Amino acid sequence: MIFKSIISAILVTILSLAGMLCTQNADLNLVYAALFCSPYFILITLFYFCFNGIRRKLNLLDQPNIIFELAYGFIFYLTSCVLLPVLLFVSTLGDEYEHKLYADLGDLISEMFPIILILSIFLTVFSSILITWAIRSYKTLLPVIIIYIVVISIVYNIVQHNERQETVASTGNIKATGEGWRGSMSNPDAYPVQLYKGIFLLSNNERYEFTFNEGNTVNYGAKWGEDGGNTNKKTMSLPKELDLTWYSFAEDCFYRLNSPIDYNKLQMLFNTPYTEQIGKRKTQENYNSVIMGFAPGGILVVWAGSSGRRQIEIGRYSAEKVNITKPVIDGEGLKYGDVFNQEWRKKVLTDTTIIPFKTQQHTKNKPIPYGYWDKLRTRYNWCPTFVVSPEIKISDADFRFYNAERFVFFDETLQNNIYEERGIPKNVYIKWYDKNGNRCAVDFEFNEEKTFKQFDSFFNHQKNTKATIEFNISQKDKTATAMLRNGKNQLLLLQTNMIEYDKN
């Protein structure tokens, strides 16, 4: 019985994951995730079959009932699938860097939910109807698998056909993923905004009116350059113009931007998949979001965000103040999301889930630092180089910049870099495996005020036109340094200690 249960669990997992991947027109990243998670689904399926065995011993609904099997099986698998991202969230609590991947648990579950739902249905069908009966007779099992292969092939062909039809139907669609793209909202944590009206003028001249999170709500726990509220993801042409009207709570005014954006750059990025390295495996990733950052003074910065670890600025644009009024009834109570409601405006500026308490205290009675977000966009002509001990082979170097861009260097890009205009690094996380298979890393956290002064002094005062940032890692001393170099001129930016993790 145990042998049959194990075989059943493996078969259910393989067939269900394969079916889910076919319905999703999966890329390599999703295939890798499915393989990585397969032991978990084998385990929960085995638990499902063990429960069935206990049920039969207790003579509890020993004769299979299809409706009952479907109901409790679906609830069991849906709960187990939702539990997986929660377990990943908890398991990374001791690793600050890895934990960032799962920090926004609510959004993660929401984004994964369509896949979770489909996978739960497949697991339920194979566990509750097919395998539970078929495993009792191997003569029945073979035709069940054959029928499954035929059905999945038909489903896969239908998905592929629909995808080709959608791609052909819309000029300027992203070509690489078929998953579409979405608009995303960003703002500084101290200065929330609310979209009043948003319109994308697409490259095929269609107008697409949108809101964030199915309504004009604000970002909770916002960070500049990181996406917060999102539009629905759609496969459609990319935007060539933006027509945005928003309310700035701290400034108590509306802004409107009606402007073309750099469509050529956006299209080039979205239509060109890039290679990403996850652990020791490589996957194909795509740009899939247009992130709009709203800063005080009517500043809008647009980035192309991706499914991997890349983010590139598209451009910076200036909006104009506009006067939009709506009568407000005296004594009107709080109405969530009503931008004209005084109680709502007050709540946004005082709610610590929107603006953290420390941020409120830090900015209290201080003027808005207009121009600060333009300063973050400062660029210099530089490239990174890596000097390491002979026994080190770097896995990758993850760069986050103060201008909210992000780029990961690995393989040939670790050594063959070119000089180009880059932002000032905010964080650089370099990891590798030593000769014993232990994972090691260095985490450079660059102080904003100090680092900006260092770059200004090195590039402007000494009239340097270009430089390298040399990252030197010493396995022997367990330390690493970041050094600005130009010929004989050099300036130490930061020294930090090496981090050693458990084996693998």
TrEMBL record:
The chain crosses the membrane at residues 32-54, 66-92, 112-134, 141-159. It comes from the Bacteria. The keyword Transmembrane helix applies. InterPro entries: DUF2931. The keyword Nucleotide-binding does not apply. It holds the Pfam family DUF2931. This is DUF2931 family protein.
